[in-house]
Design a protein that fits this description.
Layout lengths: L1 E5 L5 E6 L2 E8 L3 E8 L4 H8 L2 E5 L2 E5 L14 E8 L3 E6 L3 E8 L2 E5 L4 E6 L3 E7 L2 E6 L3 E7 L2 E6 L3 E7 L2 E6 L3 E7 L2 E6 L2 E9 L2 E7 L2 E10 L2 E3 L15 E10 L2 E9 L4
Parallel strand pairs: 2-6, 2-8, 3-7, 3-9, 8-10, 9-11, 10-12, 11-13, 12-14, 13-15, 14-16, 15-17, 16-18, 17-19, 18-20, 19-21, 20-24, 21-25, 22-24, 23-25
Antiparallel strand pairs: 1-4, 4-7, 5-6
Length: about 270
């Protein structure tokens, strides 16, 4: 099943899929194409595709696979949703166990999933993800980010705005942070490759913390661990130096059980 709609500008995508996958490709185009594929050859999946809602109203493209329709084997439909849409399209996606992926640049992204991975290339607006059991990976996030995970890892390339992450069980890796960070985890390591400016708050109940500070950034450090070591490659003084120019970062790092390491990033503060 495939349908196409004329969508000049940046449409909003509203997607509901209980199980399967949601794959989005953005391109320089003025239309949105939706394709539904059966990922399992059974009656419940075929019926779900036949009864799917695929429509375009008021700048919103809705793709919805019904939650009902369990088979006598106790399985929900398994449907692949593939969407090709304009750059900057906004995404609102809800799934139970479907993986969500997007290539190219989306606008604002809101994803809720029970157990599914979220993989995004470029988020041009805000990013909000809530998942019970699934990982999150994003190469670039331009807007404010809010991530809530119960069990899953987070991998982010560049966060250009404020980022807040709450993890219960999982590791976090962030290559570059250009603004404030607020990250808390119960069980898992946190590794920040480079921070530039603003307040950086990292808390872990059981896990190591490592933060890289960009060259040219002045830093204030407040670090403590109940059971672990604290180390720093930076020159630490009791008072700030005379040179007040450039970026400034305030590190507030706390671990109940884990080591804390502060290192000098290879990236200069001025690199975007």
């Amino acid at each position: 099943m495939e349908r196409s709609f004329e969508t000049p500008g940046e449409p909003r995508l509203r997607v509901r899929n209980p199980a399967g996958l949601v794959a989005i490709e953005t391109a320089e185009t003025g239309e949105t194409t939706v394709e539904l594929q059966a990922l399992r050859d059974d009656e419940v999946t075929r019926t779900a595709i036949e009864n799917a809602v695929v429509e375009h109203k008021g700048g919103t493209v809705t793709v919805e696979i019904a939650k009902a329709g369990w088979s006598f084997l106790g399985r929900s439909p398994s449907v692949g949703i593939r969407i090709r849409c304009p750059y900057g399209s906004m995404l609102e996606c809800t799934t139970a166990s479907a993986d969500v992926s997007a290539t190219g640049r989306l606008g604002e992204v809101n994803v809720k999933t029970a157990s599914g991975d979220v993989v995004l290339e470029h988020v041009g607006g805000e990013l909000n993800v809530t998942t019970a059991s699934g990982g999150v990976r994003a190469e670039t996030v331009d807007g404010v980010g809010n991530l809530n995970l119960v069990s899953g890892d987070v991998r982010i390339g560049v966060a250009r705005s404020q980022l807040a992450v709450r993890l219960v069980s999982g590791d976090l890796e962030l290559a570059e942070a250009h603004a404030e960070l607020a990250i808390s985890s119960v069980s898992g390591d946190q590794q920040i490759g480079s921070v530039r400016r603003g307040q950086v708050q990292l808390q872990s109940v059981s896990g190591d913390l490592e933060v890289g500070v960009a060259q040219g950034t002045r830093v204030f450090i407040d670090a403590s661990t109940t059971s672990g070591d604290v180390s720093s490659q930076l020159d630490v003084t009791q008072a700030p130096g005379e040179n007040r120019a450039g970026d400034e970062a305030k590190l507030r790092l706390k671990s109940v059980s884990g080591d804390i390491s502060i290192v000098r990033s290879a990236l200069p503060a001025g690199v975007a």
